[in-house]
Design a protein that fits this description.
6-stranded mixed β-sheet, 2 domains, 26% strand, 17 strands, Nucleotidyltransferase, domain 5, 351 residues, alpha+beta
Length: 351
């Protein structure tokens, strides 16, 4: 296994909406190259990772390359790669929820490499564009290079090969004897992966063109060091927050009681959690009423300090409008949910 590391200047500003959810966190840009699409028969031959520390004007690029196409070398790659990935708080991928991360998980399981513990939140740009934007109506497809072209990024790409080309070059690399030609093949493969990572980082400003608050409501976002929201939902009586415990999972359950009117369950073995926050109903009986029904969270009764988010819409005298008629107040609800979980995290792990 060959590990390379380069530090470069970082001149990109991902944008305000990105900072709202991920500001102050160590960001990783992740992309892998494999010999096929099925993790049961194909290998990870290259793992690329760009990392950016919060507030830094530099970024670090790392490439983990499998030199011998055998279990031992792939295991070394995965051990080094996953160690680097776990040092980030958020990994940005393109279709990573369906390919990169499940592929890594299966290969790690097959080769006896730890995968789950401390795994960062996966911000899958493809999934957001596919479900929460109109780009599918404007573009012929949502392949990464198509979206790059839409964002005017084609000229910033330096490699000219595809993922399939990369695999062919890798097999050619394996047959060559040590020398300049072999090194040139490896450099071409690494450049392809490096460009995919760099271009994906340059795509982050596209999040300003999507309904990011709605996306984060449905797809979740990280909170603190230990908790990651998976999904938020609202019914007539409660706001439900579901997710996973990333590190130091605990077993804990609590039910509504004076001074703490929430119900919550944390599973140590499953690493999952669910928190139910009671809501107050006000306004009309149905959505056609002159005053549509409101679902409100009473921050005073819940003992949640909302002073840091009072500039957001739908906060009045300690009440947060979670839903008005059929419309969810995504931006404020997400911010309120973060405060709820930060309070719970502080209470459960620091008491």
């Amino acid at each position: 296994m060959k590990h390379t590391k380069v530090i470069e200047k970082n001149e990109l500003k991902p944008g305000f909406v990105f900072e709202r959810y991920f500001g102050g966190r160590k960001i990783g840009i992740l992309d892998i190259e494999t010999t096929g699409l099925s993790a049961s028969t194909a290998r990870v031959i290259l793992g690329g990772l760009i990392t950016i520390e919060p507030g830094s004007d530099t970024m670090t690029e790392e490439e983990f390359f499998c030199e011998f196409n055998n279990d031992a070398d792939e295991k070394k790659l995965l051990e080094g790669y996953m160690k680097a990935v776990r040092k980030t708080d958020v990994v940005v991928t393109y279709n990573g929820a369906h390919f990169d991360m499940p592929f890594l998980k299966e290969r790690c399981a097959r080769l006896g490499v730890e995968y789950e513990e401390g795994l960062p939140y996966n911000l899958d740009i493809y999934r957001i564009l596919n479900k929460f934007s109109d780009l599918r109506k404007l573009l012929p497809n949502l392949k990464q290079k198509t979206v790059e072209s839409y964002m005017g990024l084609w000229e910033t790409r330096t490699d000219m090969i595809s993922g399939a080309d990369s695999v062919e070059l890798y097999y050619e690399y394996l047959t060559r004897k040590e020398g300049a030609e072999k090194e040139a093949l490896k450099s071409t493969i690494i450049l392809h992966n490096s460009d995919d990572c760099a271009q994906l980082y340059r795509l982050l400003p596209i999040l300003g063109k999507v309904d990011m608050h709605k996306a984060m409501f449905h797809l979740g976002f990280p909170v603190g060091r230990r908790l990651e929201i998976g999904e938020i939902s609202v019914d007539k009586t409660k706001l439900s927050i579901m997710g996973k415990q990333n590190i130091e999972p605990i077993e804990y359950s609590a039910f509504e009681r004076p001074g703490f009117p929430m119900e919550m369950h944390f599973g140590k073995e499953t690493r999952r959690f669910i928190v139910d926050v009671p809501l107050v109903r006000a306004g009309g009986r149905d959505e056609s009423a002159e005053i549509p029904p409101l679902l409100l969270a009473d921050s005073v009764a819940l003992c949640v300090n909302t002073s840091s988010i009072e500039d957001l819409p739908g906060i009045e005298k300690g009440f947060i409008i979670i839903k008005k008629g059929s419309d969810v107040n995504y931006i404020t609800t997400n911010a309120f949910v973060r405060l709820v979980l930060e309070k719970i995290e502080s209470r459960l792990w620091n008491d």
